[in-house]
Each structure stands twice: as structure tokens, then as C-alpha cells.
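Give me C-alpha cells for this 158-residue protein.
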Amino acid sequence: MTSIVRKATLKDLPILLAFEQNLIQAERPFDSTLKNGKISYYDISELITQTDSEVFVAEIDNEIVASGYAKIKIDKPYLKHKQQGYLGFMFVPQQHRGKQLNKLIVDELFKWCKSRGVFEIRLDVYDENIPALKAYEKAGFKKHLINMRVNIENLNLK
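Here you go.
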């Protein structure tokens, strides 16, 4: 069982769109602000074809078993770095978890960012998604900033 990591192509779009829906389903319990019904997080075909982003997939026996993307973004002018590599769309189906596939994808995304002179890498993860937090920490990420929210629609304000 040897895995390979490669750049995604538009031919991979059907499986990647299914991965996106599975990712959304997995994240729904962590986010009460997501709309009901079918939604989409990404324009995957754009991420594949644009020069400022790249999607990678891992394969085992010609089956796509993991995904992730990096997108180069201009960062805030008060930060030391001018650009960041933003990672997302990290997904590994349940039956393939625990095989270090996410780490393989992240390493490839790191190489891609580094080859473009981008060294600040960021991503977002739900604070209650413990397995994802652990996977990202294994890849070298550290918690940096907490995004907080409150819904005041039914709050009795006097």
C-alpha cells in the first residue's frame, strides 16, 4: 500500500466535490452558523487552475484518499510578512484516517508555498475538532489567535 501525492487536475473534480460535501458534513456539528441544505465552501476548479493556488491529492492504488489546497494571499500591512500561504480543504475519508495522509498533503503544500517564497502558513480549524487540531499540531502548527462569536438575535437587551 504505497501512497503518492500529486497535483489535482480538473479530471479529479467529481471526487473532490464529494470530498467537499463530506468535509462540510463532518464540520456541521462544530458550526451552528452554516446554512441548512447543500452548501459549498470552495471553488475547487478555480483553486486547481489559478496560479496563486494549488490543490494536492493523495492516492493509494489509484484511489484519491486525501486532499488539501494552499492559496497565496496578501497579508495585512502591519505584519512582518507580505504574504501568507492559507491552507484548506484538508480531507481524508474515515476509512483512510490514521495513515499519515494529511501530513503528506501538508508537507507538499509547504513545499509549494516555500518554492514561491511564502513562509508564513495559516489555516482555520474549529476549536472543538480535536482530531484535526492534533493532526495540525503534528504538522507543526501552533494555536495563534482565537476567533470568537455570539448570536444576539434572541438576547434580551435593555
